[in-house]
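This is your field. Have a critical look at both lines of this record:
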Amino acid sequence: MINTNSRQNFLGPKSAAEFGGQQIGIIGLCGGGSHIAQQLAHIGFKHFLFCDFDHVEDTNLSRMIGSRPQDAEQEEKKTVVIRRMVIDINPSASVQLMESKWQDQAEQLRSCSVIFGCVDSLSARDELERFCRRFLIPYIDLGMDVHSGNQGFSISGQVVMSLPDHVCMRCLGILRDEELAKEHARYGAAGGRPQVVWPNGLLASAAVGQYMSLILPWSQDQAPSLLLEYDGNRQCIRESSKLSYLGEFECRHFPKGQGLGDPFYVTTA
């Protein structure tokens, strides 16, 4: 019988066991989240926790992998659609569903090996990072936007890997108090929260690659980057120049060992 993982042998002899031992949390299942779920299922991950309280709409069909017109017609839950896709790819997968705001069932997320954040708002990113830092969970955040300018529209985005005892999204300038206060005006003139499938796919692939590099270091010189930046007009992803001047900068927003694992920790709504 052909080994379905034979083309992934370079990842190492323990890779299959690693895939089976990871609990993957994905918050937000439309654009980037649907791509991430699909890719991780193909790779061989078996344990997932999906969180999204919304249902499929017509506007989701252009970017939500696995969605169908009948899902929008029937107002199917996004969690149900992505679980169906994952099980079709990997019938042995185990998928838990959270069909409410993640803050309402945050306790379930504490068992995750990693959390991918594919959320729309800066405040949601802020809360997710705070939660993951509290419980020492690697957090990988995807973000993209479309802006208007004199030459038309531009697409940009980033993938942030927020790890315990490393710089956070505030250190990197992704989250700023003034931007959090103005976030409803940040989506430009391309329409409400514009998203398109190919930037979502590129950013999701980069995020999956970052996580694979974190758990399976198959090369001595491919440590994952804490910040990748995407130029959607030139179709390129590169490590951010911000990292070169941060150097050994120590995060002051989440001091080492401060308040970790607090069983009474509660996020704000």
The chain has a mean pLDDT of 86. The longest helix spans residues 197-215. Residues 157 and 266 are 30 Å apart (CA to CA). DSSP finds nine helices and eight strands in the chain.
